[in-house]
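so my prof wants the structure for this chain in the tokens format not the other one, which i didnt know existed until like an hour ago. anyway here's the sequence
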Amino acid sequence: MLTNFDLEKMVDTSDEWIRSRTGIVERRIADAGTATSDLALPAAQAALRQAEMEAEELDLIIVATVTPDMVFPCTAAVLQRRLGAEAAAFDLVVGCTGFVYGLVLAREVIASGSHDHVLVVGAETLSTITDWEDRSTCVLFGDAAGAAIVGPVEEGRGILGYSLGNDGANADALKIPAGGSRMPTSQETVANRLHYLTMNGPEVFKFAVRTMADASEKVVRAAGLSMKDIDVVIPHQANLRIIDAAAKRFNLPYERFVHNLERYGNTSAASIPLALDESVREGRIKRGDVILLSSFGAGLSWGSVVMRW
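here's what i got, hopefully its the right format
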């Protein structure tokens, strides 16, 4: 665990500064040498146990991550091997929106009749791409993993609708500059610290508030519902001020919004499955509840899903 007080000793910041601007108090950091698949594995195993399924019953594994074990093979392939599954497997690189994209893809392949059970994992070791000398970003992120198994359900349950999108014009607002074909790794890129995450915070903030609200309202209407029909909202856990702004925009009681970022920070693709799992285990989400998941991330991407639990 890395607290705000720990960060005070690392960079020029303070507990009060971090809390007032983000709502974050502490975050979890993986041990040195821990790879993303090391976090994804127990999350996937827990999802299988909860679903009372064996890994051999999976048809597809999707891992949403921006911190893969390696460039290739995909982390989903590593996870498949470690689970003992025989499923097809691939990664999604959509940043914080990855888990929502994964749910939508799972829903569509199941609806097509080609698959029955899809494991969707959001897993990140963001500590490996965080510049611990940059106080504007290092206070934000944590490591985590969450997973869900998507399968056929009766009419009127499960995913009722979704909205996905991307604004490539603002792609540079959230990125890792070097390490790809545009700027291959070199002594110069390493020396200039270009392999760490960079973010235009104000631009991402404005984008998040606008797109989360627009996409959520769109998907709720498309499902034949209104915002007052939503029992629980699970937004991407990036910043408490963004969640506050969304609550005002949705005109919903703040109590319907889940937030746990004060304990975990921004865990990117893992944030929504982590909050979803905690909400279910704590009894906050019950069978029949209408749930809204809403996220934004690199790309700049956005995605909202409405489902009946």
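also thought this was worth mentioning. The CA atoms of residues 160 and 307 lie 5 Å apart.
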